[in-house]
Amino acid sequence: MPENGGSTGVPTARRRRVPRRFLTAGLAALLTTTGALAVTGQPASALQNYVQPMEVAWTDNAQPTRSFPAEDGSLPVGTWQGTAGDKHTSRAYFTFDLSDYHGKRIISARAVTGERSVTNCDKPRELQLWRTENPTTAPTWKNAPTAVEKLADLTVSGPACPASYLATAITDAVSKAVVAKQDKLTLMLRIGEHEDGVLWGRRVTTLGVSLEHNTAPNIPTNLAAGGVACRDDMFIGTTRPELQAVVTDPDVNETGGGDPLKATFAWWPVDRPTERTELEFTYALPSGSRFQYTVPDGVMVHGGTYAFSVRATDQYADTSPWSPECRFTVDTKVPPAPTVSSTDYPSGWNPHGGPGIPGRFTLTAPGADDLAGFRYGLSGAITYVSADAAGTATVSVTPTMYGFNQLYVQAVDRTGNRSPQTSYEFRVQDTAPRITDGNPTGAFGEPRELTLAPVMENVVEYTWRLNGGEPATVPAAGDGTAKVTITPRTGGLNTVTVTSRTSDDLPSGTAEYRFYLANAPVISSPDFPLDGSDGPLAGTTGSFTFAPGMPGVTEYVWSVNGGEQQTVAAKQDGTASVTYTPTWAGFQWIEVFSRTADGTGSEIASGYFGIVSHAPEVGSADYPMYREAGGPGVTGAFTFRPAHEGVTGYVYDFGDGPQTVAAAADGTATINWTPRSYPADSSGWVRLTVREKVGDIVSDETEYPFILGKLAPTATSADYPAAGEGGGPGIAGSFTLTATMPGTTEFVYRFGTEEKTVPARPDGTATITLTPTEGGGNLLFLSSRTDSGITSGEDYYYFYVTYPS
Fold this sequence. Notes:
Blueprint: H1 27-31, E1 49-51, E2 55-60, E3 74-81, E4 87-97, E5 105-113, E6 115-118, E7 127-132, E8 147-153, E9 166-169, H2 171-179, E10 184-191, E11 202-205, E12 208-214, E13 221-225, E14 228-229, E15 235-236, E16 242-246, E17 261-269, E18 277-280, E19 290-294, E20 305-314, E21 326-330, E22 339-341, E23 359-364, E24 371-377, E25 383-386, E26 392-397, E27 403-413, E28 422-428, E29 434-437, E30 448-453, E31 459-466, E32 472-475, E33 482-486, E34 492-502, E35 511-517, E36 522-524, E37 542-547, E38 553-560, E39 566-569, E40 576-580, E41 586-596, E42 605-611, E43 617-619, E44 628-629, E45 636-641, E46 649-653, E47 659-662, E48 669-673, E49 685-694, E50 697-698, E51 702-708, E52 714-716, E53 725-726, E54 733-738, E55 744-750, E56 755-759, E57 765-770, E58 776-786, E59 795-801
Parallel strand pairs: 15-21, 44-51, 53-59
Antiparallel strand pairs: 1-12, 2-4, 3-4, 3-11, 4-10, 5-9, 5-12, 6-11, 7-8, 7-10, 13-14, 13-16, 16-19, 17-18, 17-20, 20-21, 22-23, 23-26, 24-25, 24-27, 27-28, 29-30, 30-33, 31-32, 31-34, 34-35, 36-37, 37-40, 38-39, 38-41, 41-42, 43-45, 45-48, 46-47, 46-49, 49-50, 49-51, 52-54, 54-57, 55-56, ...
């Protein structure tokens, strides 16, 4: 049967297994650990452990009945000379605790040590590793554990002496000990053929074992079928259930991850176990993952009882035991739609009860043979209730709104199958009290007496709120009514909510009474019409008056055209006046709100008004608008023409500060302007602004932009022509400078970084000599000046210097 990937979303293609890597970080430090160290009770890494010996000792033939611990993490091996000149021969013993590795697969094991010192590096290394019997007492030369087998000669590649790293594979020895469930393994280091030779002696670091092992996966858990966690007497409502299980592995690597695992699912009909089907996933997932498999069509049928089990396999093909089987019965028959009845809220057009008044509803499902309960709710079949032995349930439902309501109900069988939904329709009576306002036109801050009248019988009290504030309760009079007085102090929409309660403690629906209170100030102006008609000329100073829209106003906060807010104090009558001078024409607006002494703010009032433009006309034949003309030192005439009668003068600005000029009898004015320098920062653009004056009124501005010519000098050179090549590095050349700006008396030039000047001859020319230092393109920057300090714009002369051949 082809594999079904379930809903993991992981491709089923086999993945290449990444080889495990040896633990090398910190190995040198481990090799130099002093004394006997116990192995940890739980491996630190499933991929690799560096196991320290639980017991370390060395023996001495010169002191045959004594056992010695490691000194500074090192031990003598072979023959060595004592301080008195006597000879000693030693062997080192290392006992490891293997109890934590019983039942695990040993992938690889390497014994690792290193030389701390060597007596004579010219002598060949004869360091041997042996397995011995496990000693019952501390080893001595006289009572040494019996050597069982030689495991290896420890060698090292390269000429290093002493060698800090010596290692050899001991996988077979460790694996056999673990399989035999030996709790300990003892290894011995000694010198071989020349053990009694002083020149072959050395000191070694404490021996450790770099151990890679593997533990079989855990038994899979969290089995589920069709979305139901496995349990006794289990039913599911589909013939294509999704089978699920979580697989875990006890191995944890150095980064906290686990072994990648595969899962095998097996399922079968309980009454036909020989029809067992097994499926192994081709891909692996990390430990702790959930595998999911969907049973295909045609395998399971309604009424059938099935079982499934799962086992896990790791990358070394070690498998877990099969999980306990999960049994379930397929039940796809849905119960019939339920029926609903209620004496408190009977179905029909007549309303009953009221919002907040609970009612009892009886739910039944005739013909359901395995009914478990019902789901119900006013907004959907959400809440669950179990059915009694007779297959019914009575629930209490509290409607929250009057008028048409629906109770949605579904029957639910033991499997969780839901019936078609029944919609039970009923009407709820409007029980909200009635509210009458005794002062419906009351202004901001004025009291209003509200009369509350009942709709229900035997009303004894009312609870009311203004704008969501704290609730207040008042008793009802003998006729069931009550009166409350409110003093609203909130502008805009206000809302009063009221509920009543009867002597039987039945609540009513909620009544709402809404009214609007305008508390925004009123804006008026004798100077700026707020009715849409034309206003005054730009520059005309006018005033606005603010009148309060609520009592207790002490100040107003106002702004024009969204600008900076300003504050003005209110007078004793609550009003205030402000002045404003518009500097531009067109549609404008004013906004204002008021504040009381306690900081209560009103709504914002807005007023809209128009300002008439009387910006003058500006013209110049010498400096036409938007065109390049003239230049530094070239005088130009500008004529200003009025846009309004009675113009007495003009205010104009070329960007260097405002100046004034009186108007002639016909209202015009002409000025002469001589630019003194080229505005390089604006690329020659000049922005002339002009306003006309009518008495004390200054109009909105007219903008007149134009471009000033540079009038920069030009350069020519026969030695270094602008077109073509000339000269060469280190070859001087002559350049002729010719003025363009009238009145030029000197030239300013820059070739490289240094700025220099040269006087202009009477004909407006000058000659300079330059010596280029580099081949290729060169630039000569040029400008000119007059005696009065007028400066031209700067331009450049480009020439090409021939590279030396």
